[in-house]
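Title: Prediction job returns without error message
Component: structure pipeline
Severity: low
Priority: P3
Assignee: unassigned

Description:
Job completed but the reporter wants confirmation the result is attached to the right record. Sequence as submitted:
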Amino acid sequence: MAAQRAGQRKTSRYVVPVAVAGIAAATIGLVPALAASGDPDLPEITAQQLIEKIAASDTQTLSGTFKVSTDLGLPALDGLLGGLAGGADSGSGEGSADPSAQLSKLVSGTHTLKIAVDGPERQKLTLLDGAEQYSLVHDGDEVWAYDSASNQVFHEKGAGAEKGVPAPDEELPASPKALADEVLKAAGDTTSITVDGTANVAGRDAYRLVVAPKQQGSTVESVTIAVDAATGTPLKFTLASTSGGKPVVDAGFTKVDFGRPAASEFAFTVPEGAKVTEGDEAGKDAPEDLEKEFGKSPEELEKAFGDFGLGGGDANGPEIIGEGWTTIAAFDSGAPAPKTEDVPKEARGFMDALGDRVSGKFGSGTVFKTKIVNALMTDDGKVYVGAVTPQALVDAANSAK
């Protein structure tokens, strides 16, 4: 069991949409708007019954097409994230098949994926971007990944591969069930959960479960989950922000089949002429790639950023302020905020686009903003993070003084 939990932690590098909002994972769910017309006529069901139906769902096999669209209110991230991951956009021009680099693309824009699942031993995910494809295959004790753009293969076998795949109850990276489970953990006195009609999703009759905060100060307006009426499997989600506009993240099936995929779906043959990188070799050139991208060594970058205030903190972990949807994590980075002249030019522009200077009883600092997760870093190195408004962060910093 401990080994399985360790595997889940390593898998987090593959689950990009979840990782981006990971600081507020217990309060966030993801997916697309549901059709308002042609809704199916289904038996009435209470929110509690629908939650129990989701919990009892035991879907082991499925295949289909999954669409994810992300709008975090961030500037373009592809170049920065690719450089930090040492991936396809790292400046080397060689590309990469490492999942940690390739799946970072899901952080922004709209993407289509093909998914196949045959229990805990076999899963396949294919990211379709125009004429290019990226495939990630888990078959038994092996993981294979292939990037058609660079004709490169990533391979991991044995214990390393087992750690690199989701546990059975997590299904696939960014799977609807895994996301729904995270949302439902937020249920409690601070949360309103209701059933709001029905919908037809990917050709399936579904109920609409709406999860929303009762508290003021959260950046989350609501989460809508479409739950398959027959199986209890979550099919689609919509995360709406209080800032309005497009949903923060839309993710869900446009086609789905609960039959067992053919065994050939999980077979992998190394394409002719492809370069194969073993898992224990992946990332060994990352320090050189970082230096090429930013003109500074990893040590210089670490000093300049102070780990963005996220690498330090107390030995006992962050202090938790508040509860439910307005929970804030507070900790001391152990170093003052980086001076502007010490920050690499590329990262400086990124930080300036995200940050607003603020002041209060705590002194002064910068609030880094997205449509959901916001973070206040004070000039003396204190950090406050949560799915809350900037004012809530300032209030928390003031109260700590």
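Comment from assignee: result matches the submitted record. Residues 63 and 116 are 4 Å apart (CA to CA).
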